[in-house]
Amino acid sequence: MATGLAALAVHWGGWRYAFWVPAICLLLIWVLFIFFQRNRPEDAGLPPIEQYHGEAEAVAAPGSTPGQEAEGSWKMVAHVLRNRMVWLLAAVYFLVKPTRYLCLYWSPMYVHDRLHLDPTESGILGSMFDLGGPLGTLAAGYLSDKMFRSKRMPGAIIALLTLAGLMTMFQYLPLTKLAMGVGFFVLGFFIYIPDSLISGTAAIDFGTKKGASTASGIINGFGSIGQIIGVTLPGWVGKLLSKGHEIWNPIFFGLGISLALAAILLFPQWNRLPASPRSQRR
What we know:
Elements: H1 2-13, H2 20-36, H3 49-53, H4 74-81, H5 84-115, H6 119-126, H7 128-147, H8 153-169, H9 177-207, H10 212-240, H11 248-266, H12 277-281
Helix pairs in contact: 1-2, 1-6, 5-6, 5-9, 5-10, 5-11, 7-9, 8-9, 8-11, 9-10
């Protein structure tokens, strides 16, 4: 949404005002974070999440118990680094991130190329991608917690397969403002389902809350490499193809393959849940 606001700022006051919109948004987020952020439920006077749900606390290493794993210790870091599920999630996130960042950064250019609109309208239509994101994140939480009983993989796999089809067919959308805006909104909705589950919830689940920072760092680090690919992809494809050739069709097709591969990698983990002393005894 900040992209659309920045586009309006450019339209009303010139390009320099585009820098003020994100800065003000970040300042507001900083204020909210300082006053309302809590690290754990106990900081807000609530019981631990495992106690609330009547579940055993997850452990990072098979055969260990929660009491043996010290939060922030090098031993815990080593446990997370040996966790194959964390590395699988990192590989999947690497495949997902190019789509998110290509749409995030290049959607106004794509709209301009297809509909020949001015920068303001192109930015607003492209920002529909951002607008769908928060709704997708909420849907991810509801699906994984309520429908799939705390299993993170089913929602991510379904969204990834849907996205793979959408990316492959996106180039065939009718060349209208409505179709383009709805198309980017739907892409944003679905991309944020696996994005939030893999980089956030699943990182905490399989890295455990004591090793969540290490797991999140690994997964998001690989995602950042994918982000670089997504941002630079149009430039590289444009160089590879001779001048005058269409760049968007091969890009969308390639991203569709990448998303489908991510779903295939996750599919064997459909019913996967984090290890716990209770599950090990079974």
